[in-house]
Amino acid sequence: MADTLLSRFLRYVRVDTQSDEASPTFPSTANQWVLLKMLESELHAMGAEEVTLGEFGYVMATIPATSPNPKLPTLAFFAHVDTAPAFPGKNVKPIVHRKWNGKPIRLPDDPSQILDPKIYPELLKAKGKDIVTASGKTLLGADDKAGVAVVMTLADYLLRHPEIPHGPIRVCFNPDEEVGRGMDKIDLEELRADVAYTLDGENPHEVVWETFSADGAVVTIEGVSTHPGEGKKYRMVNSMQLAAKLLNTLPRDGLAETTERRQGFIHPYQILGGVEKTELRFILRDFELDGLAARGKQLKGLCRGLQSAEPRTRISCSIKPQYRNMGYWLKKNMTPVNLAYEAVRVLGMEPTSPATRGGTDGSRLTERGVPTPNLGNGAHNLHGPLEWVAVQDMELAVQVCVELIKLWEQKGEKYKGKRHKAEGKK
User: For residue range 335-348, what is the model confidence (pLDDT) as tens digits?
Assistant: First the structure.
């Protein structure tokens, strides 16, 4: 299984699939279709049924039930094909470090990039395992191509072992998770899942059922542009200077770089513009809805203060919901979480449930009525050049899914039809 996982993963990460927040298309980038079509073809070749690639880039397939019990719920397993736009994802050159010896790894294409267990202690758990990294100038793409490899290997394994009893299984690969649109176009009637799991976490013993709640904010500052040589005479107002003032008024202890665990934040991540007009983009995050609303109120208040100080400008602040903490719904029926815990323990690991300081496609799916905890795929140091994954951890992730499927076959009959109504909690 490890060799199959590795060969799949190495093949997938070489495909450039970065998504693009500014793109109006869905998927947001044409290159995502390359991997989506590859996965469609591979599912056909392995003998999956009902293989489809829809107009919005969702690859779906069915692993037919092998259990004689017709009352079992349908499970779905998800992974997203896109990689983060935060760092280059083109011309990825994966490097396999066999039986890693525990010493720092210097990436050859940029020797300043060093994976050092003194800085990244999580690495120490991977000593003796086969670690995959990029070469230093790109992402690896383990987020979430490790998940893609895990789900594909799971599907292949189940098809090769029909003696394993299970209910109907659906697999789904989607675009644009990294730009917050992964579930925007999915048809839940086509998916036909009662419960789902995303393979988009880190350690294979993790079962995540709490995420941030998230809003996005856009602040637009319109200044007064004149010839710089006559700036004082004609009372220039440089919108970039005002943007800098706004950023400097953000409380230092409420930024992404100064918070941890269950602390929320306001995070400016993009600034575009010139003298006449500047646009700033923010993400607002908190585990509690009251805290999220307070951060939006705080940002709007800072904008009003800046507007009062310089009345010749026009400053607007627009805030839009992105996703909500899946825990609001999952805690009402913890069966999908508890069975995942049990699957992890079957393999001799102790499950953990860190509250994720981010979101997953499962956040949106859960809100829309399909309970979707997040499972680990072995990937670490995401969204940067020091991303890495251990092949043996990906293999454990497959095994967790297999045990989970067995448990649903044994205990899932009473869950059928219990899918909650999407409440649209805002």
Answer: 999 999 999 999 99
> Over the range 114-143, which residues count as b (16 or more CB within 10 Å of their CB) and which as e?
ebebeebeebeebeebbbbbbbbbbbbbbb
pLDDT in tens, 21-67: 889 999 999 999 999 999 999 999 999 999 999 999 999 999 999 99
Question: 2-211+325-415, what's its fold?
Answer: Aminopeptidase (3.40.630)
Confidence label for 232 from pLDDT (cuts 50, 70 and 90): confident
Q: What is the DSSP string of 164-231?
A: S----EEEEEES-TTTT-TTSS--HHHH--SEEEEEEESSTTBEE--B-EEEEEEEEEE-B---GGGT
Which residues have a catalytic role annotated? Answer: 82, 177
Q: Return d(Cα 323, Cα 321) in angstroms, integer.
A: 6
Q: What percent of the chain has pLDDT over 90?
A: 89
Cβ atoms of 28 and 93 closer than 8 Å: no
Which is nearest to 363 in space by CA: 202, 206, 198, 204? 198
- Hey, how many other C-beta atoms are within 10 angstroms of the C-beta on 308? 9
Q: Does domain 213-323 have CATH number 3.90.1030.10?
A: no
For residues 223 and 277, is the Cβ–Cβ distance under 8 A?
yes
Task: Tell me the pLDDT band of 425, cut-offs 50, 70 and 90.
Answer: very low
Domain boundaries, the chain: 2-211+325-415, 213-323
Alpha-carbon torsion 140, 11, 155, 323, what sign? positive
SS3 content of the chain, % helix, strand, coil (to 5): 35, 25, 45
Q: Which tokens hold the place of 149? A: 């490899």
Integer-rounded Cα radius of gyration of the chain: 23
Summarize pLDDT for 106-165 with one digit per residue, the tens: 999 999 999 999 999 999 999 999 999 999 999 999 999 999 999 999 999 999 999 999
Contact (Cβ atoms closer than 8 angstroms) between residue 198 and residue 372: yes
| DSSP letter assigned to residue 374 | E
> Three-class SS of residue 112?
coil
DSSP state of 47: T
Which DSSP helix (H) or strand (E) runs through 35? helix 32-46
